Amino acid sequence: MKRISTVTFLSIILAIAALPSAAQDRQGGDDDAMLPEIDPQDIEIRSEFKARFPGLRRQPILGFEPASRTYSVDPDRMPYIESREEVVADLPISELTRPDPPAYTQLHYSPDINAFGRLGAGSYVSPEATFWGVTRLNEKSYIGGDLDLSSSEGHLDNQKSSFRFLNADAEFATKLDDDTRLGFDLGLENSFNHLYGIESTALSIPDSPRKEYGGFNLGADLQRLKNGVAGWNVQANMRYYEARVYAGDLAGMTDEGVYNASLSKRWAGAHPQEMITAKLGGTLGDYNNSITADQWMTGQAGVEYQRLFNYEMNLTVDASVYYGSNAFEEKVYFGPTATIELPIFEGAILTGEIGAKPYVQTAEDLHSTNRFLSSGNDFRHTYRMYGAGELELKYSEVGSLSGGIRYEDISNQPVFERNALSSQPDELLFYRVRYADATRVRIYAGASHQVVPEKFWLHGKAYAQLPELKDGGRVPFSEKLGLNSGFGLRLFDRATIEGWADYRGLRKNDQGQNLNDYLLLGGQLDLLITDNIGVYAKVVNLLDQEYQKWEGYVERPMQIYGGVTFKL
Question: Residues of the signal sequence (predicted)?
Answer without folding.
Answer: 1-23
